[in-house]
UniProtKB/TrEMBL annotation:
Membrane-crossing residue ranges in chain numbering: none
Protein name: Amidohydrolase 3 domain-containing protein
Coiled-coil segments: none
Lineage of the organism: Eukaryota, Viridiplantae, Streptophyta, Embryophyta, Tracheophyta
Source organism of this protein record: Escallonia herrerae
All copies of domain Amidohydrolase, residue ranges: 26-120
Gene Ontology molecular function terms on file: hydrolase activity, acting on carbon-nitrogen (but not peptide) bonds
Amino acid sequence: MAVGSGRILRVGEFSSVQDLAGYGTKVLNLEGKIVVPGFIDSHVHLIFGGLQMARVELRGVSTKDEYETWNNDRWGGELPMASWIDEITAEHPVWLSRMDGHMGLANSVALKIAGVTNTT
């Protein structure tokens, strides 16, 4: 691979890029290893992150009354309960995933369908 001014100029066998070598060229022998593009991952689960963009926005909550959005980091310790959403979701199973995907909230209908009957 030949790189110049921060851009990839050519990719191929050594013989196909050696004509680009000149004064100040740094040649690196990778001894048969492969070069692949670099990725910067700020710990985003790519598929899950993409799906999150199509869901109802649930961030910014600090009280039950503000349950238009959800991130319990702002609550000071109190976690949401099924009863918070049961009244408005009484006929349909609902699962709300926390913004990082590491926690979720199910309403009572969803818990019943899943066979979870003791929520204490």
